[in-house]
Amino acid sequence: MSQPSPGPSLASRSWPRCGEDASPENPIGCPGIHVPGHTRCLAYLGDPERDAYLAGLTPGSDIDHRGTPFTGTLLGALLTRLRDPATGHPHLGDARFTSATFNGDAGFESAVFENGARFESATFKGDARFESATFESDARFESATFDRAVSVGPSVCAGRVRLSGAVFGGPVTLLFATRRLECRRTRWSSTAEVRLRYATVDFAHAVFEYPLTIAAEPDPFMVANGRQVAEDLVASAPGPEVRLASLRGVDAAHLVLSDVDLLECLFVGTVHLDQLRLEGVCTFDTVPPIVHWRSCSTFTRAFSSQPSPSSRGGPEPHLGTSG
Ligand SMILES: [Zn+2]
């Protein structure tokens, strides 16, 4: 089984490591956390010990498999033990997969994360599938690496969806009802579609190499059986509108925005605004009396080919000048 390479963050990993399969090239060995009561991670436990551990899990159990390398089979065995018999959906309590490696497809379809989903610095070598997953607290994927396709949602997240620093190597679909989506310093190496409700979105210093669409979804998401996705978890949010907080430092050449509120958006350092594509109704702030930002003329040109905001019933376009 291939092991995650010990990255620079290894020293900061505080959990007791399994250390199996050490070699001159990888002297630290497997970074998986010990299964409670053992000195190996779930991947390297003997079959009887692994079966006994899995047998002790019930739907909603807390899970801590930081650093652990998963095959598709091992992840399937884990999630099977967490399935609610009434719905067939896996229920995870406090789910910690920080720095784990998923060597096969990671199938978390319809999973319910009851108390935080932690996948920071995890590596997904196959497809990452979180269709219809529910996040009752934060969904944390900071600095995760997705080598292949990613499909999340339609999902509701009661906390923040935190993707900052993540690297996406394949096509991405994110469908989320959530109050906050953080995508600072993300890298997107294929096409991506981000459809949202209720969210304030931060894409500061993100890098897109292919078209990336950020769109507001006017109606509640539907799942395959025609049922609406329940939005109780975000019911206290002001409204389903989607606001862009920042495009700082972004090359907008591949960016498509649809029905997004740009009233508070920071554009400092954004380039190729003339190639930014706007669809539907995107609202802007009013023009300040004095604009000091050098590239404002570029920004103004960006809208010369669009229906003027006033013709759409909105105010004149404006660029935030603060940093
Ligand atoms: Zn291990």
UniProtKB/TrEMBL annotation:
Q: Where is the composition biased (Low complexity)?
A: 304-317
Origin: domain of life:
Bacteria
> What Pfam families does its record include?
Pentapeptide_3 (PF13576)
Region: Disordered; residue ranges are 1-23, 301-323
**Which InterPro entries does the record match to this protein?**
5peptide_repeat
Question: What is the name of this protein?
Answer: Pentapeptide repeat-containing protein
Q: From which organism does this entry originate? A: Streptomyces griseicoloratus
